[in-house]
Write a structure and sequence with these properties.
The complex is a heterotrimer of chains A (about 375), B (about 270) and C (about 280).
Chain A (H helix, E strand, L loop, with lengths): L31 E14 L4 H7 L4 E15 L4 E5 L6 H9 L6 E6 L9 H4 L2 E5 L11 H12 L3 H15 L14 H13 L5 E5 L7 H18 L2 E6 L2 H7 L2 E6 L2 E7 H8 L2 E8 L14 E6 L2 E7 L3 H11 L2 E7 L3 H25 L1
Parallel strand pairs in A: 3-7, 3-8, 5-6, 6-7
Antiparallel strand pairs in A: 1-2, 1-4, 8-9, 10-12, 10-13, 11-12
Helix pairs in contact in A: 5-6
Chain B lengths: L1 H20 L1 H10 L2 H16 L10 H18 L4 H10 L4 H5 L4 H30 L10 H27 L8 H14 L11 H9 L7 H7 L5 H36 L2
Chain C lengths: L6 H18 L1 H28 L11 H35 L2 H6 L4 H7 L7 H17 L6 H32 L3 H12 L10 H14 L2 H13 L6 H28 L7
Helix pairs in contact in C: 2-6, 3-6, 3-7, 3-10, 7-8, 7-10, 7-11, 10-11
Classes of the chains: A alpha/beta (about 375), B mainly alpha (about 270), C mainly alpha (about 280).
Chain lengths: ~375, ~270, ~280
């Protein structure tokens, strides 16, 4: 795609001059560029037992936690990327690094040409971070007061502010709730207000950390719809972390899977199954209940059998052969061959990662 | 019986461990607590300078400083930070339910955890206290006789119990009043002013002095210090100690009564 | 949308929001006012009691009863302002750090120290300010003293310096809590250090007192906080005071600069609580 450089990245270039010779091909510079980013913490260890606690009075023991172990990432402008991973994988830490909230132990990152942890006001005015479990609005005051504070801090012109606010309030359908104290709103409504607050200054990059956590299904659905609509409308770049598959499946084409502080996979959702799953699940419906064979396990791992249906997990490559054998030997009324559920694939991927890290750490200790 | 003792021991041990986690706070905090004494020393010296040496309410300058140091010791026994507010909080947020369900006596449990707290505190505080008293030994006219020392020790122990049951009773008021914090604040204010923490009660003129002497608050700071310094002797001393014991028993009964009535009221509301 | 925020206006919004919030809990507001006033009355009572036994604090220092009350009202002015504007924020800072809510302050295109120092205002602490004013007027009347025009200007100026010095100390201590974690002893530390500022400098004399006085004048200038403005009114135009008054301005600037440096350093090592 041919575009001009993102405004802040260019050195002297402020305006595009029509007289200047236009480059034939311009490479799109990734709006987010991360190289080798890592973050480790020291965590104080509490000892069990009375004597150890007394000893702890004089000598503290630390444990090094490596939240992020070196990640590389490129995100183009206008992409909607999901970070998927179990708790403690490093998703939130990565977002915080990219927001400049914490400083990394090693590595570099650039967002819109800025180094996030320098905390330039120019940068902070152009992105937003929303955290699902933390609320930044004033608790006892109506949301509109917090919005007004936002307007002043970000110096948004009044007409633009009102227009944006009304637009967002409409989209999220929270019209009557603006003058109620935030503590009186439901969890879902509060989340919507948080989103509005984050988008009032029309950021170009949006970081969302588990925005739908703790919400009921309808609220989750509403927020997902809103995000999809808003992103299509404004073409902003969004990074979303979640451990809900539904968020991801509904919104993002590109998925980055993080586990143990490392990127395990970066690509499309469909690709995950192709790459990581060596198995398929065959569901069989037998012709009559009594005909359920007792020796199903010779074909593969039996997941479930309740007459007249059975589900078996078989290696991919063996599917045609096994199907043929089963169909030949038994009377089958219905058969389907499916990929295992995505969660399962991912969970397996995580446990593989865990094992690998554990082995690495053991190797390090022995070295 | 043995099982119960073991339970108590486990509870004590857990409370001790919990306290020890924040050891940085402890060490620093203890030393800090003596800093106001420094300003008091200078302040009173300036005051006595202006009066050219006469005594104030029966205290000479060095006696007055010794008094303040001794009230620090008493306060180390009688102060119960967070006890009343903790109880009120537990009542307010429903944690008190566990004492309805579990076979644990709330007051006993709290007493034990306070003992744990104090034990750890004394361990850490012994050093700083000894250091300060050594540096300030010039303010003391030597050790009192064994009888006085025994009376001093007795009044300290009773100060601990009195402080505990008094504050526990206040905390129990949370069963009847939703917001106990203002009540507690008033109590703290009175405690600070009329317990002798701020100045020896002897300084209060006439009728005020007599009234305050009747309150139990004086036993929380003033009384043991006065005993040590020999301001209370003989028959008056014996009477004073008996009255202190009386107050301890009174508040012991009051706290138990408040707990029983309060729990009954609480369970009457369900929830 | 490219200019930096108008700090005064943002502060105005903070003030307004805090007032609205305080008025929502009106009963608590009144209780807080009464509480802080009772505390002041108790302290005043203590000094009234002392003056029953003596006519002056310190021999020939000039701090007699009503001069000392001027000193006391100066203490109240400074402390009430610090308690109203800065103390709630300093307390909040360690909560912000503990819960990780400091993240939000770091995300905003506004100076972090500003937002962290002024976001909340506790209006009820200004009850002491009003009382201090009453006490001051009463004492000045008893002393038959009318301040000159220059004192009307300098007194508030030095009150502001005092507030700035205490604020610097407070923010420096709060920043340290980013490293130390839970920090009840840091608050105690603040209380104990500022305790020294509540008495006339003259009482710190002698072998230990004089070095102490020097430390708290030149190293941690808390003695400047109340003494300089109070002397301005109670012992005006004594030539020995001028160097100290000049130094007070230097101390204020130095304190503010030093505390900002500590704050920036602390921010650099902020960890952000895990969600």
């Amino acid at each position: 795609m041919f575009t001009t450089h993102p405004p802040a990245a260019a050195g002297a270039a402020g305006h595009f001059s029509p007289q200047a010779p236009r480059p034939i091909i311009e490479f799109e510079m990734a709006i987010i560029q991360v190289r080798g980013l890592a973050k480790s913490y020291r965590v104080y260890q509490k000892q069990e037992g009375l004597l150890a606690s007394v000893r702890g009075l004089f000598h503290r023991r630390y444990r090094l936690v490596q939240a992020v172990r070196g990640i590389d990432l490129d995100v183009e402008e206008g992409q909607f990327v999901a970070f998927l991973g179990p708790n403690g994988a490093g998703k939130t830490t990565t977002l915080k690094l990219l927001s400049g909230v914490i400083t990394p132990t090693r590595g570099t990152a650039e967002v819109m040409g800025f180094v996030p942890w320098k905390r330039d006001n120019a940068y902070r005015r152009r992105f937003a971070l929303v955290m699902g479990q933390k609320n930044q609005l004033w608790w006892d005051l109506p949301a509109q007061e917090s919005f007004r504070l936002h307007q002043q801090i970000y110096r948004i012109e009044p007409e633009r502010f009102e227009r944006t606010r009304d637009e967002l309030v409409d989209l999220l359908r929270v019209g009557g709730l603006l003058s109620q104290p935030v503590r009186e709103l439901s969890l879902g409504e509060r989340m919507k207000m948080e989103l509005i607050a984050a988008l009032l200054h029309s950021p170009e990059v949006l970081f969302l950390d588990e925005p739908t956590i703790g919400l009921d299904v309808i609220a989750q659905h509403n927020i997902q719809n809103f995000l999809r609509h808003y992103q299509q409308l404004r073409r902003i770049t969004i990074l979303l972390t979640s451990h809900y598959m539904k968020d991801v499946a509904a919104l993002c084409k590109r998925v980055v899977i993080i586990a143990q502080g490392r990127i395990m996979y970066d690509g499309s959702l469909a690709g995950i199954v192709d790459r990581f799953s060596g198995h398929k699940v065959i569901t069989l419906q037998f012709a009559d209940e009594a005909a359920l064979p007792a020796d199903l396990d010779r074909y593969g791992q039996v997941l479930e059998q309740q007459a007249p249906k059975a589900r078996i997990r078989v290696p991919r490559r063996a599917v045609p052969e096994l199907l043929a054998a089963i169909l030949a030997r038994h009377t089958i009324e219905d058969v389907s061959v499916e990929d295992p559920p995505l969660e399962e694939v991912i969970a397996e991927m995580f446990s593989q990662a865990d094992d690998r890290i554990a082995a690495e750490e053991r190797a390090e200790q022995l070295a | 019986m043995l099982a119960k003792a073991r339970t108590w021991w486990t509870i004590l041990r857990i409370c001790l461990e919990e306290r020890l986690v924040y050891r940085g706070d402890f060490a620093l905090g203890t030393l800090m607590r003596f800093l106001p004494i420094v300003t008091q020393i200078f302040l009173w010296r300036a005051v006595f300078e202006a009066t050219s040496g006469s005594s104030i309410a029966g205290y000479q300058y060095h006696e007055l400083i010794a008094y303040y140091l001794l009230t620090m010791v008493t306060r180390a026994f009688s102060s119960m930070p967070g006890l009343a507010s903790g109880i009120a909080l537990q009542i307010r947020n429903g944690e008190i339910k566990k004492f309805l369900i579990q076979p644990i006596d709330m007051i006993g449990f709290l007493l034990l955890s306070r003992v744990a707290h104090k034990l750890v505190y004394y361990t850490v505080a012994l050093g700083p206290f000894a250091l300060v008293f050594y540096l300030c030994r010039g303010f003391f006219a030597g050790w009192p006789d064994p009888g006085t020392l025994a009376a001093f020790a007795a009044s300290l122990l009773m100060a601990f119990l009195l402080g505990f049951f008094l504050e526990a009773t206040f905390g129990m008021l949370g069963f009847w009043f939703l917001d106990v914090s203002s009540l507690l604040f008033v109590y703290m204010l009175f405690n600070f002013f009329f317990s002798g923490h701020m100045f020896p009660i002897d300084m209060l003129p006439g009728i005020w002095g007599d009234l305050v002497q009747l309150l139990p608050l004086k036993y929380l700071a003033y009384y043991p210090a006065a005993v040590f310094l020999g301001k209370v002797e003989g028959a008056a001393l014996v009477t004073g100690l008996w009255v202190q014991l009386g107050w301890v028993l009174f508040f012991f009964a009051a706290s138990r009564l408040a707990l029983a009535l309060g729990l009954r009221r609480y369970s009457g509301f369900g929830g | 949308m490219t200019e930096s925020p108008r700090y005064l206006r943002v502060f105005g919004t903070f003030a307004r929001n805090s007032l609205v919030r305080d008025m929502t809990f009106r009963a608590n507001f009144l209780i807080d006012c009464v509480s802080s006033l009772s505390w002041v009355f108790m302290n005043l009572g203590f000094y009234v009691l002392i003056f029953e036994y003596t006519s002056e604090i310190g021999a020939r220092t000039g701090w007699q009863k009503y001069e000392f009350f001027v000193f006391l009202s100066t203490t109240l002015f400074v402390n009430s302002v610090v308690q109203a504007f800065f103390m709630p924020n300093a307390n909040e800072l360690s909560e912000l750090i503990r819960t990780g809510h400091l993240d939000f302050a770091l995300l905003k295109p506004i100076d972090t120290q500003f937002i962290v120092s002024l976001a909340r205002i506790e209006w009820s602490s200004l009850a002491n300010f009003v009382f201090a004013f009453v006490l001051l007027c009463y004492s000045l009347v008893q002393l038959n003293f009318t301040p000159q025009p220059v004192q009307f200007v300098l007194y508030p100026l030095y009150l502001a310096c005092g507030v700035a010095i205490l604020y610097s100390l407070m923010i420096a201590l709060s920043s340290v809590s980013i490293w130390l974690g839970r920090n009840q002893s840091l608050y105690d530390f603040w209380f104990y250090i500022t305790n020294f500022s509540r008495y006339p400098m003259e009482i710190y004399a002698g072998r230990i007192g004089t070095p102490l006085r020097r430390v708290f004048t030149f190293a941690i200038p808390v003695l400047i906080v109340v003494n300089v403005p109070a002397r301005l009114l109670a012992r005006p135009l004594e030539s020995q005071n001028w160097p100290l008054a000049a130094f007070a301005l230097v101390a204020t600037a130095g304190s503010l600069a030093a505390s900002r440096w500590v704050f920036q350093r602390a921010l650099a090592s902020y960890r952000s609580a895990s969600s």
